[in-house]
Design a protein that fits this description.
The complex is a heterodimer of chains A (815) and B (420).
Chain A: H1 4-7, H2 15-23, H3 27-38, E1 43-49, E2 56-58, H4 65-73, E3 78-80, H5 81-91, E4 96-99, H6 106-119, E5 124-128, H7 132-149, E6 155-157, H8 164-173, E7 176-179, H9 181-188, H10 196-200, E8 202-207, H11 215-234, E9 240-245, H12 251-259, E10 264-266, E11 276-281, E12 285-287, E13 292-293, H13 296-309, E14 314-318, H14 321-335, E15 345-348, H15 354-366, E16 371-374, E17 389-393, H16 399-406, E18 416-421, H17 426-432, H18 436-439, H19 453-466, E19 469-470, H20 480-490, E20 493-496, E21 499-502, E22 522-526, E23 533-538, H21 543-546, E24 552-555, E25 558-566, E26 571-576, E27 581-599, E28 610-629, E29 635-640, E30 646-656, H22 659-665, H23 669-690, E31 698-703, E32 710-713, E33 719-722, E34 728-729, E35 740-745, H24 754-759, H25 761-774, H26 792-795, H27 799-810
Parallel strand pairs in A: 4-9, 4-10, 5-7, 5-8, 6-7, 8-9, 11-18, 14-16, 14-17, 15-16, 17-18, 22-26
Antiparallel strand pairs in A: 1-11, 2-3, 12-13, 19-21, 20-21, 22-23, 24-25, 25-26, 27-28, 28-29, 28-30, 30-35, 31-32, 31-35, 32-33, 33-34
Helix pairs in contact in A: 4-7, 5-6, 11-19, 13-14, 23-25, 23-27, 25-27
Chain B: H1 2-17, H2 29-38, H3 59-73, E1 76-79, E2 82-90, E3 94-95, E4 98-99, E5 121-128, E6 139-148, E7 151-159, H4 165-176, E8 181-184, H5 187-202, E9 213-215, H6 217-224, H7 233-241, H8 254-264, H9 270-296, H10 305-314, H11 318-327, H12 334-346, H13 350-362, H14 366-379, H15 383-387, H16 396-419
Parallel strand pairs in B: 5-8, 8-9
Antiparallel strand pairs in B: 1-2, 2-7, 3-4, 5-6, 6-7
The chains are: A alpha/beta (815), B alpha+beta (420).
């Protein structure tokens, strides 16, 4: 195969480069060296994993000869060790989770047993993928293997796009049905009698991208799987579950929580791996006072330019579709100036036509593109061949996702270089200063709470519709009798003898969204350009904070302004805007501790820090919002908000310091208050990382925990003590001053984040302290303790130092 | 256990803090209260009054319940949980403007009924606990009707408890017998799939699916969908049968009526549900011959002639379709005229076809112009005349044909030059 450089001599590059890519044994290492030499100060960490040879195992002896032939036709005559391990576990009838990196041949882990079973009998399989696009890719892959061996196995997708007249064929003739959890929830289970034949013969359920099933979504999916297993039992089937996941800290635990059974874990990949070189890159600080850094975008384009000029195939990942377009434009301006030549740079993202995307994939596989800029659309599954360099413009939000994207470079055992360019977001800043996250065991724990009361109740409802409950049956960890009693009061089920029958004229699954807890989502309606188009949906809990009148609401990175909020009608009417500011709701959250379920060992007696987790009741009032200019974070105005107070019972963890300790450590209560607010900010982001949740899944608050007062950051950037009605209190004038910092599950009833966070509170406090201490700003910035508007001189102390002080005191809680 | 503790502590705290009813202790209240607290957005629903009067209790209670309902419905207890109501409707009687006697006439004018005799028809209509479908929707009344001994025999199998479901379905299946052809209104997509699901859930063989089935909604739609506002059975009754129901319980209220009985023992509306279902079945029996007449002479019934003609053609009776369309030429829209022209062409009636195409072409129908061009080129062998129909430049087919015709003419004139 000709190298790209030979195909396309370039005028712009130095003369020796072309020959270099022919002769240089390792152009990628040279690029890394050059980056390091030139930008030493920006590289905060470096990680080299050496090439690793593959570990193999022979094809299993019992494998169907037709399947062997199909594999041989595709060049497979032996298995990687993890594929063989998965085969063994699954053959023994054990539920199995496989955790392996991108491009390690994980699909064979489930396709082999599934195809074997389909060939040897009537056995059927259900594949669940989080998205429709992935399902399509998967069917294509099975069909290819199928063709190669003339296996005659029928695989179909079944989702919202499946035409009505094709559905019957899928139900009755499909050996492998590829779908998604939403379809299973709303389309398949409530109509299970139509699928009777399929369920009777269902042998395997495959759940890929398992790590995406966490938090609220994962808690719902666990219940959908409870319903699936219940329906299977009705048809006398007990399928084996095969799950696949990106690397997380607790794959077996998550798998077992999802399916409610013990799960065997296969975690050692036997696939060969090329050498990997990862650089963590922090853009230089350009305004040390405000802690403002150069944009990640400028750094990303710079690295990409160097890489493409050296003839290296390069992939860029951006967080938003808009950023994909911006980066593409910048790079096309450099590399695709001549319209007569074939394009070297292409964008790839959702929203493009499938044919367009397929064409780009094809060009990537053929090596005729030099650079592709993508959203997470390319992160999963899609085969695009070998790339040399991967640049991430901003941290993807999870380490698992980071590895999945980095896995795009260096496929097929070639050496690869990855560069993670941090944005100025706190999480980015935290990650980029902790190379250990990428070296050691993953810190990310995917949590779900399948017994979350409201979620569970939703699914008991759906399950009662699907099959009558019988006396003594179990569903979830709560008392089923109580649940059914509640539903009987509602009039939707009726007890007759030993059974509970559905007795409502409704279809409950349609009222249950797998992505929210509260009922009554808001729709965001664009009223620009005459027509009314629904552009987004916002769940009830976050509506008051995000779609109040005047709010700037981002959809696909484009700003819209909310013109009218119809609270009762659950609608927000928005119009596209060009505002150069964003809005930040002023959040008065008054929190009352209802009960501590568990406390740290040390007591109040010795004046040390105390931490606990338990149930809290919070009342949130959103009195107004701030308009904040992009980049500079200056406050350029206010607006009022008139919304009803929000109440929520949820779970939380909190830390408290004794008044005596505080008095000894701080010269003023004001300083302590600022320290607590900065601490809350840092803890919040570190905890989001640990629990693999979005920052908005968790809430943070500072207050007395007794619903008397809470603290917020005022217009001057200083902490203020207030009552819910807005009255400002003077900290020094108050009696006993015992602030607490809270992290809470931002959903009614909680979603099971707080309890595990309490378990790992020591690591979280340590992480938060490291985040703040290592920040290069002087007295606090959005990357560590939140925007600091007042200067040191005005304050007389550094809020950053105050936060470090609080955090160091919290470390003494005996955890 | 920790959960229980947590629960009671929480209730105590919440009760102390807020004015929730702390006294209630019926089963489910703990959950109810917790859910209510978690869901401040939703107005707390008033706790329903649970009676538990029917369904639970000793076997004797169930027997008494069945007997009471049988009496109320003027039926008999067929099996535990199943009431059978039977009525004979004399064929001499009238249903609206129609005599049921016409059922005897062969309905062969209705294409999908051809070749069947009245003894095979079984009219079917169910009442259900909901209209949304899915396995949570139950059938609580299976109404069947067939002609026997000079009468229309209507049998309604009614559930008095879920426990009777399997027996009800089996009994209804038994009465169907082997050869019956189902006749329904929207039964193909609603009643029969639902019955199939219930059989599956009850664990019995499904006697309803995989059986010949004439769904009268389809011929009704074909004849009247473009003429009436809707094709609901009540509309059909009014417009085709001249049958008007007095004090009818709307079908949409049937679910609530039965649920009121099952949940609270309130059987007040069930006789009305049975009467509603009875009328549905008799209307079906009257509708079958009426639709046959519509298909014999759609013009007389104000039906969509083109739609009816299409049905005859699809069943292979092109001649009948052509005759129908020809007889109602003045009532056809352009699509109907195109269809008539097509049938005339296939029958070799070129002059009639051309007249139709000319009429259509004069209103700008490009397709008809193409037909005329083809006719002149291939039948009349007059490319010059054909070319006159290919002037529409917005149409690719016209452009191509024009180019080809021009070539043809060119070649011809060239030949002529040569020979001249």
């Amino acid at each position: 195969m000709a190298t790209p450089a030979a195909q396309m001599p370039r005028a712009g590059s130095p003369p020796d480069l072309d020959s270099e890519s022919h002769s240089d044994p390792d152009p990628i290492a040279r690029l890394a060296d050059q980056l390091k030499a030139k930008y030493r100060g920006r590289i905060t960490g470096e990680l080299i994993t050496p090439a690793r040879p593959g570990r193999y195992a022979p094809l299993p002896p019992g494998l169907d000869p037709r399947l062997c032939a199909a594999l041989a036709a595709r060049g497979v005559d032996r298995l990687f060790s993890h594929q063989a391990q998965a085969w063994e576990a699954v053959s023994a009838g054990r539920h199995t989770v496989v955790v392996t990196p991108t491009a390690s041949g994980k699909t064979l882990c489930y396709n082999l047993p599934v195809l074997q079973a389909a060939l040897n009998g009537q056995a059927k399989a259900l594949y669940l993928f989080p998205t429709k696009a992935l399902a399509q890719d998967q069917v294509a892959e099975i069909l290819e293997l199928n063709r190669a061996g003339e296996l005659g196995v029928r695989a179909y997708t079944f989702d919202g796009d499946t035409p009505g007249d094709a559905r019957k064929a899928v139900r009755t003739r499909g050996d492998i049905v590829v779908s998604n959890p939403d379809m299973l929830h709303q389309g398949i289970l409530p109509h299970h009698t139509k699928w009777a034949q399929f369920f009777e013969n269902l042998r395997y359920v495959v759940i890929d991208e398992m790590h995406t099933y966490r938090g609220v979504f994962g808690s719902h999916v666990a219940n959908v799987l409870r319903r699936l297993r219940r329906v299977c039992r009705f048809y006398g089937a007990d399928p084996v579950f095969i799950l696949c996941s990106a690397t997380i800290a607790n794959p077996a635990e998550l798998a077992s929580a999802l399916i409610g059974e013990e799960v065997a874990a296969v975690t050692e990949s036997g696939a060969p791996q090329g050498a990997k070189h990862l650089l963590l890159w922090n853009p230089p600080v350009i305004n040390p006072d405000l802690g403002i850094r150069a944009s990640a975008r400028s750094q990303t384009t710079r690295i990409a330019r160097m890489s493409v000029k050296r003839g290296l195939k390069t992939i860029l990942f951006a967080q938003t579709r808009l950023m994909v377009e911006v980066l593409t434009k910048y790079l096309k301006d450099v590399f695709d100036k001549d319209p007569r030549k074939p394009a070297r740079v292409a964008a790839y993202r959702g929203g493009y036509l499938p044919t367009e995307r397929r064409a780009t994939e094809q060009k990537l596989r053929a090596g005729s593109l030099d650079c592709v800029i993508s959203t997470s659309a390319l992160e999963l599954g899609v085969d695009i061949g070998a790339l040399d360099v991967c640049v991430l413009n901003g941290y993807p939000g999870t380490i698992a996702g980071t590895w999945q994207r980095l896995g795009r470079a260096g496929r097929r055992q070639r050496p690869a270089l990855g560069v993670l360019v941090a944005s100025s977001q706190p999480l980015d800043q935290y990650i980029v200063r902790n190379p250990d996250f990428f070296l050691g065991a993953s810190p990310e724990h995917a949590r779900i709470d399948p017994d979350q009361l409201l979620i569970l109740l939703d699914h008991v409802r759906c399950a009662a519709f699907e099959l009558p409950f019988r006396e003594g049956e179990r569903f979830g960890g709560e008392s089923l009798d109580d649940m059914l009693g509640y539903l009987e009061e509602e009039g939707v089920v009726h007890r007759e003898g030993e059974r509970w029958h559905w007795t409502a004229d409704s279809y409950p699954a349609n009222a249950v969204s797998l992505r929210s807890v509260a009922e009554g989502n808001f729709v965001v309606v664009d009223i620009g350009e005459g027509a009314q188009t629904v552009v987004a949906e916002v769940d009830y809990t976050s509506a008051p904070m995000t779609i109040y009148e005047g709010a700037i609401y981002m959809v696909q990175a484009s700003p819209y302004q909310v013109e009218q909020l119809d609270w009762d009608g659950r609608k927000a009417f928005v119009r596209r805007t060009r505002a150069d500011y964003y809005t930040d709701a002023i959040d008065y959250t008054r929190l009352k501790i209802l009960e501590a379920f568990e406390r740290s060992a040390s007591g109040e007696a010795d004046n040390r820090a105390q931490s606990a987790h338990g149930e809290v009741h919070l009342v949130r009032r959103i009195p107004g919002y701030k308009k904040i200019r992009y980049y500079t974070h200056e406050n350029i105005g206010y607006g009022n908000i008139n919304l009803p107070d929000q109440e929520m019972h949820t779970t939380a963890l909190w830390w408290q310091l004794a008044p005596e300790t505080l008095a000894a450590a701080f010269s003023s209560r004001q300083e302590a208050l600022d320290g607590f607010l900065g601490t809350a900010y840092a803890l919040h982001h570190v905890a989001a990382l640990e629990s693999m949740s979005e920052p908005q899944d968790l809430g943070r608050a500072v207050g007395d925990g007794d619903a008397q007062w809470f603290a917020t950051v005022g217009a001057n950037g200083r902490g203020q003590m207030r009552r819910l009605d807005g009255t400002e209190l003077d900290p020094e004038a108050e009696g006993r001053f015992r602030p607490a910092v809270f992290l809470y599950d931002n959903y009614p009833g909680g979603v099971g984040l707080s309890a595990p966070l309490f378990e790992s509170r020591a690591a979280i406090v340590r992480g938060a302290r490291a985040l703040v201490e290592a920040c290069e700003c002087r007295c606090g910035c959005p990357a560590c303790v939140g925007p600091i508007l007042a200067s040191d001189e005005v304050r007389g102390y550094s809020p950053k130092a105050a936060a470090v002080q609080v955090l160091s005191l919290l470390q003494g809680d005996g955890a | 256990m920790a959960l229980k503790q947590r629960l009671s502590t929480l209730r105590r705290q919440a009760g102390a803090q807020r004015d929730t009813e702390a006294g209630t202790c019926a089963p489910g209240t703990q959950i109810a209260e917790r859910v209510r607290r978690l869901r401040p957005a939703v107005p707390a629903s008033a706790p329903g009054t649970r009676q538990g009067a029917c369904g639970s209790g000793a076997p004797g209670d169930a027997a008494r319940r069945d007997a009471r309902l049988a009496e109320r419905l003027d039926g008999e207890v067929l099996a535990p949980g199943v009431i059978l109501i039977e009525h004979r409707v004399a064929l001499e009687g009238r249903h609206g403007a129609r005599a049921l006697r016409t059922l005897d006439d062969s309905p062969s004018d209705l294409p999908e009924a051809a070749g069947r005799s009245e003894s095979e028809w079984i009219f079917v209509d169910t009442e259900t606990t909901g209209l949304s479908g899915g396995s949570g929707t139950a059938v609580f009344m299976v109404g069947l009707a067939r002609v026997q001994d000079n009468a229309l025999v209507v049998r309604q199998y009614v559930l008095s408890a879920f426990a009777g479901e399997a027996a009800m379905l089996a009994a209804a299946g038994d009465w169907l017998g082997g050869r019956a052809v189902l006749v329904s209104y929207n039964g193909k997509s609603f009643d029969v799939p639902l019955l199939a699901a219930r059989c599956r859930l009850a664990g019995i063989a499904d006697p309803f699916s995989r059986r010949a089935h004439l769904d009268l909604l389809h011929p009704t739609r074909r004849a009247f969908a473009r003429i009436w506002d809707d094709c609901r059975l009540s509309t059909v009754e009014r417009r085709l049968l001249d049958f008007r129901r007095l004090n009818d319980l709307p079908g949409s209220e049937a679910p609530a009526a039965w649920l009121a009985f099952v949940q609270r023992g309130n059987d007040r509306l069930l006789p009305e549900v049975a009467r509603h279902n009875h009328w549905d079945l008799v209307s079906l029996a009257a509708l079958l011959p009426a639709l046959a007449e519509v298909h014999a002479d759609p013009g007389a019934w104000g039906a969509d002639v083109a739609g009816v003609a299409r049905a005859h053609r699809q069943r292979g009776d092109e001649e009948r379709a052509r005759a129908l369309l020809g007889a109602h030429r003045d009532r056809l829209d352009d699509a109907g005229l195109r269809e008539l022209a097509r049938l005339q062409r296939r029958a070799g009636a070129w002059s009639e076809a051309c007249a139709l195409w000319e009429e259509l072409a004069s209103r700008g129908c490009v397709e008809s112009r193409m037909h005329l061009a083809k006719y002149h080129e291939h039948v009349r062998r007059d490319p010059r005349a054909a070319l006159a129909y290919c002037t529409d430049t917005s149409c690719d087919a016209a452009l191509q044909r024009r180019r080809r015709l021009e070539d043809k003419l060119q070649r011809r004139s060239g030949q002529r030059d040569w020979f001249d």
